[in-house]
Amino acid sequence: MTAASGGDPRPGLGISSPRKFVQRRGASLIAAALLAVAAVALPKPAAAQTVTSDPPASFTLGNGLQVVVIPDRRTPVVTQMIWYKVGSADETPGKSGLAHFLEHLMFKGTANHPAGEFTQTVLRIGGNENAFTSTDYTGYFQRVPRDQLGVMMGFEADRMTGLILKDENVLPERDVVLEEFNMRVANNPDARLTEQIMAALYLNHPYGRPVIGWHQEIEKLGREDALAFYKRFYAPNNATLVIAGDVDAKDVRPMAEKIYGAIPPQPSIAPRRIRPQEPTPAGPRTVTLADPRVEQNAIRRYYLVPSAVTAAAGESAALDVLAQLMGNGANSYLYRALVIDHPLAVSAGASYQGTAVDDTYFMVAATPKPGVEFSQIEQVIDGVVADIEANAVRAEDLERVKTQLIAEAIYAQDNQATLARWYGAALTVGLSVEDIRAWPDRIRAVTSDQVRAAAQKWLTKNRSVTGYLIKDTTAKLQEKRS
Amino acid sequence: MRMFAPRALRIGLVAAASFVAAALSTSSSFAAAKIQRLVSPGGIEAWFVPDATVPLIAMEYAFGGGASQDPADKSGLGHMVANLLDEGSADLDSKTYHERLDRRAIELSFNATRDYFRGSLRMLKEHRTEAFDLLRTALTKPRFEANDIERVRAQLLSTLRRESTNPNSIAGRKFLELAFGDHPYGRQASGTLASIPTIAAADLRSYAGHVLARDTLKIAVVGDIDAASLGVLLDQTFGGLPAKAELVAVPDVVAAKPPQRVFVALDVPQTTVTFGGPGIKRADPDFMAGYVVNHILGGGTLSSRLYHEVREKRGLAYSVYEALLWMEHSALFIGSTGTRADRAADTVAAIDQEIRRIAEQGPTQQELDEAKSYLKGSQMLALDTSSKLASALLQYQLDNLPIDYIEKRNAIVDAVTLDDAKRAAKRLWANGLLTVVVGRAAQAAAEPVSTPPRAN
C-alpha cells in the first residue's frame, strides 16, 4: 500500500482530470496536469522512447471552432468531445450551479431531435456518452464506432444552438441535481470540508463557489436561467472540439466544416475570460468542519498558487515536480515523514492542479492516526516544506519524480479518452497544443533550484487555508432536511 | 467491494462495470485475431496479445481463492496480504522496494476479491526485466515485517472507520449479510474493525503460502513484447511458486429468498437503497438472456427502465443502476440508488413496481432488439486500452470461456429470443427484492415488506 489520499479532496464534480485528483490504482495520488502525446523521450537513465502515435492535428473553422484530431488506430472507435469555455466560475453571482444544471439539461432534446433521440442513437450503435462540468469548462462526449462520427457531429452541432427546454423536463432534472448534491456533498463530510476550504481560499475569485452550486441557489434555478446562460455561452467560437480515435485529420476537417461550420459565432463572447482576481493573500486561514459522522479525522492545506496559464515560465512545471516530490507515493517526503519515519498519520499526499484559467491551488493532505493532534502533523508538514526551501533536492529524488511524471505521458497514450480529456481541458483553459506536447520537456528541464524557489515563493502560510475534519461530539443539532 | 461503488451516470466515463465480462466484436479491434495461448517453456500459460503501438506492457493475473479463503474470524486476511506484498520482499525492505518501482515508473498492485487474489503489473517495455523481477520477489519472498504490518493495519482500520458511517458502505455490507448469512460471501473482503486487529504475521504467511500457487493461476498480457521473451519472464516470475494451492473448499450457495427488507438508521441527508436477489451463474444456459434483460431493466446506460422511471420521470435520484454479479459459487443481481429520506418510500415503490412489471411481462421486442444492438456494438469500446483488454482476457479465463469467445459472443447475444428474455426475467425478479435501506428513520422503518409479484 502506498500513499493514500487524505480524504476526498475533490473540489468540484465531474471534473475529468484537472482541478481534481486523479486516482490511480492503489489509491496513490497523481497530479495529472498537462501530459504530452508524442515525441516523448525519457531522461537518462531511461533509454530514449520512440512513440509511434502520430502527433495531433489542430485547425480552426471560420466560425471560431477549434478542432483537434488525435489519432489512435488500434480500435475502430472514435471519441467526440466538445468543450465549452464556460464553467462554474463564469456564473453570475446568485446563480451558482447553473453551468452544471445546464449540462444536465443539454440532454433534453431539440426541435430536430426530441428528448431521448440522441441517447437512443448512441446506444443502438453500442456507444456511450456523458458530460462533465468544472470551474472552467463544460464538456460532452460520445464514444462510438468510427463510421458513426458524422452522425454524432450532427447531433452535437444541433444541440449547440437548438436546445428546447420545457418545465416538465427542467423541474424533475433540478430534483435530480439536488440528489446529486446530496450524494456528493451533503452525505460526504470530506466534500463539505472541501467546500469550506475553497470558499476560504478564494476571497474574491469565483473558484470559491462549488461547481455543483450552493443548495439554496440550485433549488431556485429555472428554465429561463438555463436558456439565458446557454444562449450567452454556447457558440462555436467558445468551444473546442476534440476527435480522438481511428480517424484521419484530413477526413475530419471537411466533416467538421460541413456540420459545425454553418453555426454562426457569437461575437459578444470575449476571447479571454476576465474574472475578479485574488488579492495578495494577507494571512493564513483555518476552517474546521465538524460532523457527527466523522470517524476518521483529516487535515488538508491548500496554498493559492499560479496555474499553468498564470505562472511565469517554468514555474508550473516546478510545481508539478514539487507536488510529486512531496506527496506522491511511498517515497514522497510527506509520506516518509508522516507515515514511515514518525508514524503520526496513516496517509499523506500532495497535489497540484495546473490546468486552470486563473490561480489554482497546491494541496497537502494527511490522515492522522487516532490520538494524534493536528498540530503534530502540521509541525512535520512545516518541517518538510522548510527542508525543501533550505536544501537542494537530492539528485536521485529529482530524477525519480521526473521519470514518473514523464512516464504518465506514455501510459496516457494507451487511452484515447484520457488523451482527449487532457487536450480538451488544456486547450479550454487557454493553453496550446504546443504547450501540451512540450510538457515532458518542461518537466525534464526543472532544476533543483527551481523546485526550491517554487516552495519558497508559493508554499507560504499566508497563502494557505488549512482545513480540519473532526467528529462533532456536541448535542445533536436539528439539521435542515434537504 | 467494487459493485457498491456509486455509479455516476452523468459524470465522467460510464465504464462497463468491472465484473461484466466484455468482449469485442469480430475483427474489430487491436485484439482481433491476435489473442494467443502462450505456454512458457516451464509450462505457465497466458493469454497474450502482442501490440507495439505504445511502448508498454500490461499484465493482469489471478490466483484462485481470494477473500473466500479468509478464516471466519479473520475476514480481510487476503486483503491485508494484498496490501503488504509490495511492502518489501527478499533482500529489499519496503523503502527500497518502492524506490525500485518508482524509479522506473512501474505500476504494481494486488487485490483480493471474493473469489480471486488478483494482481496488475504495468511498465514501460524497457523496464520489463526489473518489473517482473520485483513481482517475483513480492509473490515468492514477501517479508511481512512487523512495522510494515502495523502501518498497513492502521491504514486498513482508518478506511474501515471511515466506511463505518458511510451509507453506501453500510448498505453494501448489510446486503451481503442478508444475501449470504454465514457463507464466506456474506463477509467483507476488506475485513472489519474487529477482524483486522487479530491478523498476525503467521496468518499472512499462511495465506500467501496456501493461495499463491501455479495450479490456479490465470494470466493475460497485452503489450509491446514478443512471445518468447514473455515466456521467459513468466517462468522467472511464477515458476518458483508452489505447484498446487491448498484451498479451503467453498460451498455453493443460493442468496436468500426475497422479499426481505432491512432498515439501518443513519442520520444522513440522502438515504441509500440497495436491492437485489439471487442471480444467474455464468455457466447457466440462461445467463446471456439474463444479461440482456438485465441491461434493459437497469444496465449502466442513460436509458434503462429504472433510469427512466426513477430519475428521468420522477427526479427521485441522481444515480440508479442494477447489475448481474456472478461468482464461483453463487450469483446475484444487485442495484443501488440514493434519494431524499422523505422520498425513499416512493423510490423503493417505483423500483418494486418496475421489477414486478418486467418479471410479469418481460421486455418488449423493441427493447430486446435495442439492448442486443447495444451489447454487440459496445464490446469494442470496452477494450480500447491495453489494461482493459488484459482485464477482459483474464475475466474470460476465470469464467471458463473459450479463447475465441470474442468471436462467438455476438452470435450468443443474437440468439436470445423474447421468450428467453421473459423466462430469465421471471427467474430473476418474480420473487421481488432483498432491500437494504440506510438513512433517516422517518420512513422505511414502519413499512411492510413488499409483496412479491405472483410468479406463474
From TrEMBL, chain A:
Coiled coil: none annotated. One of its GO terms (molecular function) is metal ion binding. GO terms for biological process: proteolysis. Residues 221-405 form the Peptidase M16 C-terminal domain. Residues 67-212 form the Peptidase M16 N-terminal domain. Its EC number is 3.4.24.-. The keyword Secreted does not apply. This is Zinc protease. It comes from Rhodopseudomonas rhenobacensis. The lineage of its organism: Bacteria, Pseudomonadati, Pseudomonadota, Alphaproteobacteria, Hyphomicrobiales.
UniProtKB/TrEMBL annotation, chain B:
Its EC number is 3.4.24.-. Keywords: Hydrolase, Protease, Signal. It comes from the Bacteria. Residues 199-374 form the Peptidase M16 C-terminal domain. The lineage of its organism: Bacteria, Pseudomonadati, Pseudomonadota, Alphaproteobacteria, Hyphomicrobiales. Residues 64-191 form the Peptidase M16 N-terminal domain. Transmembrane segments: none annotated. GO terms for biological process: proteolysis. Residues 1-31 form the signal peptide. It holds the Pfam family Peptidase_M16_C. This is Zinc protease. GO terms for molecular function: metal ion binding; peptidase activity. It comes from Rhodopseudomonas rhenobacensis. InterPro entries: Metalloenz_LuxS/M16, MPP/UQCRC_Complex, Pept_M16_N, Peptidase_M16_C.
